[in-house]
Amino acid sequence: MATSTIQDLELIRDSVKALCEKFPESYWRETDENDEYPEEFIKALTNEGWLSVLIPEEYGGAGLGMLEAGIILEEINRSGGNSGAGHAQMYTMGAILRHGSEEQKQRFLPKIASGELRLQAFGITEPTAGSDTTSITTTAVKQGNKYIVNGQKIFISRTEHSDLMLLIARTTPKDQAAKKTDGISLFILDMKDQQDNITIQPIETMINHATTEVFFENVEIPEENLIGVEGKGFKYVLSGMNAERILIASESLGDGKYFVDKSVQYANERVVFNRPIGQNQGVQFPISQSYMDIEAATLMRDKAAKLFDEGENCGEEANMAKYLSTESTWKAANAAMDTFGGYGFAKEYHIERKFREARLFIVAPVTNNLITTYIGQHVLGLPRSF
């Protein structure tokens, strides 16, 4: 993996900013209002190679690290965009890269890197299981040289805009497994090949996130699309969560810096009672506090990314980065709404859209309550709560 200098990182920032300038906030407001997928933006990101930076060069990617990937997503969100429309293309392929066979890597990674194949969907959450992944009920039954999948997933983003789905299902019932984490397998599902057996229902949400509910009825997955060893998929999913947490932290940091940037600009320009409102400490202090919190969270993100790239265990740091980033950004979002006052609720100022988008990361892709539990139990050694 290539190591970037400070100058390299700044070049990445500047290049992503330049790309984002072609997609102003009016573009994002329009896609949000119309519930549209930002197809043109994702194509531009793909064509410039930004979504394939974590794929090694031998498979057609840039072979860069987690910090570089994080900066890309951060700058997209800081520009007023929403990198959630394409972020999974960056990290979902990690399961193939880390646990797939060489044949699978050769078959999928170059096409994912080029954008010929989109791996944007990750089928994990189910209506009755929620965050308790070991309680999923979607099944994959081996029949000859293929698996037959039946079940349901919910809150699966970008299913309608993805060719492939990373899918987990039970190959052994939970009550028959030696441990509750056993018997879960991870698959690469080619959705185009099985579209007659897959039903996708969009879910209307408060943000434009292309969220769906997915039903599987006798879906066939060839055995060569099983990742790793049957029944050990839970471990493979966990190994990718640190990457996801670091990148989500990066997106959230971009949102936070967006709010601070916009708040500072508006507080300097807006004049009430013959003085800029930024002169009032009631306006100034929340912005300043948010800025400090976001800068501190950025350091934790950088630390987590560095450990990840060095192959070290970074579960503690990745989780803390996600928690600190999202909490500090939510604080900045509220400070921005207070700074803009009534104008913060007007769509033309874009604050309300980013406000809605920023709230998601407190809950998903992992709720901050579970992160707090993780730190308590696995870092501090407190008794297990569940």
Set down the secondary structure blueprint.
Blueprint: H1 6-20, H2 25-33, H3 39-47, H4 66-78, H5 88-91, H6 94-99, H7 102-114, E1 119-123, E2 139-143, E3 146-157, E4 164-170, E5 184-190, E6 198-202, E7 211-222, E8 226-227, H8 233-269, E9 271-272, E10 275-276, H9 281-309, H10 315-340, H11 351-363, H12 368-379
Parallel strand pairs: 1-4
Antiparallel strand pairs: 2-3, 3-7, 4-5, 5-8, 6-7, 9-10
Helix pairs in contact: 1-4, 4-8, 8-9, 8-10, 8-11, 9-10, 10-11, 10-12
CATH topology of the largest domain: Butyryl-CoA Dehydrogenase, subunit A, domain 3
By secondary-structure content and strand pairing, the structural class works out as alpha+beta
Spans of at least 5 consecutive residues whose pLDDT stays below 50 are: none
Mean pLDDT: 96
Helix fraction by DSSP (H/I, runs of at least 4)? 40-55%
Name the strands of the widest sheet in spatial order.
Answer: 1-4-5-8
Considering the protein shown, what is the CATH homologous superfamily of the largest domain? Butyryl-CoA Dehydrogenase, subunit A, domain 3
**Overall number of structural domains:** 3
Number of beta strands: 10
Describe this structure in words.
- By secondary structure, the protein is α+β, with helices and mostly antiparallel strands.
- It folds into 3 domains: 6-114, Butyryl-Coa Dehydrogenase, subunit A, domain 1, CATH 1.10.540; 119-230, Butyryl-CoA Dehydrogenase, subunit A, domain 2; 235-379, Butyryl-CoA Dehydrogenase, subunit A, domain 3 (Up-down Bundle).
- Helix content is 48%, strand content 15%.
- The strands form 3 sheets. A 4-stranded mixed beta sheet has the order 1-4-5-8. Strands 2-3-7-6 form a 4-stranded antiparallel beta sheet, with no helix packed on it. Strands 9-10 form a two-stranded antiparallel ribbon.
- It is globular and about 80 Å long.
- The model has no long low-confidence stretch (mean pLDDT 96).
